[in-house]
């Protein structure tokens, strides 16, 4: 089930995602530079909100207002989000292609693949101009890790309902202070669970890549993007 999902998303990505990306990159090369966009026919979304956490992402990721088609994880259209100093965002995404079924505030990688989504509206019934009042949004890298990785794949054993395996809490309220700069209980070499700037020697990373604790963790996360997200977060300073 898990495997099939991954294969199909790679396939869909190649079939549907790569192609528009290549086409777009010819005339739309500056799309992430600022809030500039090329007028095309199609719908328009006007976004207002306060968005924090964008600075916590390293190069290679962009926080964008983007349109997606169905299950395709590759953005069909996207504009980089650049808030004012106080976090305020007021921007426009126009020329939205007709096949777009949802509009998101999300993090994408260099291939325009969705890595994490922070806000989403159904766009399939929408026409013309949509006004989006998004309110306050935390689009930080750690928020993405908590929501997409810890909440989904870890908290069942690490503090969500029963007591935490190995005493490690990965719940929203406790995960950061349980990980960063904390010596791992199960590490023979007393490695930190997370050593900011050093993913290679962070026990959190090692546990997910190598069979080193009594309960093998190497098959819990099978998405390369999610494993990369953890590595990139640690290497970029493990910001909260
Ligand atoms: C099915 C239950 C289960 C799930 C799900 C699970 N773990 Fe664990 N985890 C354990 C157990 C049990 C241990 C202790 C292993 C041992 O005693 O050697 C452990 C230990 C760890 C340790 C070592 C802690 C230390 O202080 O040395 C880390 C790090 C860890 N898990 C991270 C994760 C992450 C990240 C996830 C989600 C991606 C996750 N675990 C999901 C059961 C689980």
Strand-residue fraction? 15-25%
The parts where pLDDT drops under 50 for at least 5 residues are: 1-31
**Number of domain units:** 2
Averaged pLDDT: 87
Treating each run of at least 4 consecutive H or I residues as one helix, how many helices?
A: 5
Q: Rg, please?
A: 19 Å
**Helix and strand pattern:** HEEEEEEEHHHH
Pick out its properties.
about 240 residues; alpha+beta; 2 domains; 3-stranded mixed β-sheet; 7 strands; about 25% strand; binds heme C
What does this structure look like?
With 240 residues, the protein is of the alpha+beta class. The chain has helices at residues 2-27, 141-154, 175-179, 203-209, 224-235; strands at residues 43-52, 61-68, 77-80, 88-96, 102-109, 114-122, 129-138. A 4-stranded antiparallel sheet has the order 3-2-5-6. The chain has a 3-stranded mixed sheet with strand order 4-1-7, with no helix packed on it. A hairpin with a 4-residue loop joins strand 5 (102-109) and strand 6 (114-122). Helix 2 (141-154) crosses helix 5 (224-235). The longest helix has 26 residues, at 2-27. The chain binds heme C. The site of heme C (HEC) has 23 residues, from helix 2 and helix 4.
Task: Indicate the topology.
Blueprint: H1 2-27, E1 43-52, E2 61-68, E3 77-80, E4 88-96, E5 102-109, E6 114-122, E7 129-138, H2 141-154, H3 175-179, H4 203-209, H5 224-235
Parallel strand pairs: 1-7
Antiparallel strand pairs: 1-4, 2-3, 2-5, 5-6
Helix pairs in contact: 2-5
Bound molecules: heme C.
Heme C is lined by residues 149, 153-154, 156-158, 165-166, 168, 184-187, 193, 203-204, 207, 213-215, 217, 220-221.
């Amino acid at each position: 089930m898990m495997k099939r999902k991954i294969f199909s998303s790679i396939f869909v990505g190649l079939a549907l995602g790569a192609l528009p990306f290549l086409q777009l990159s010819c005339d739309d090369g500056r799309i992430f530079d600022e809030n500039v966009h090329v007028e095309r026919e199609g719908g328009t979304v006007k976004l207002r909100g306060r968005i924090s956490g964008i600075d916590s992402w390293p190069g290679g990721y962009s926080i964008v207002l983007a349109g997606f088609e169905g299950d395709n994880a590759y953005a069909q259209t996207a504009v980089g989000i650049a808030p004012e100093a106080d976090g305020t965002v007021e921007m426009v995404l126009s020329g939205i292609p007709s096949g777009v079924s949802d509009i998101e505030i999300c993090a994408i990688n260099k291939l325009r693949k969705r890595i994490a989504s922070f806000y989403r509206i159904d766009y399939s019934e929408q026409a013309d101009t949509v006004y989006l009042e998004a309110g306050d949004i935390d689009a930080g890298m750690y928020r993405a890790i908590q929501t997409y990785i810890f909440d989904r794949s870890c908290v069942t054993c690490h503090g969500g309902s029963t007591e935490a395996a190995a005493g490690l809490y990965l719940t929203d309220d406790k995960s950061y202070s349980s990980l960063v700069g904390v010596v791992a209980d199960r590490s023979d070499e007393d490695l930190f669970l997370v050593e900011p700037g050093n993913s290679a020697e962070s026990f959190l990373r090692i546990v997910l890549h190598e069979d080193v604790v009594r309960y093998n963790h190497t098959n819990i996360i099978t998405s390369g993007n999610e494993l990369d997200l953890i590595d990139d977060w640690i290497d970029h300073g493990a910001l909260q």
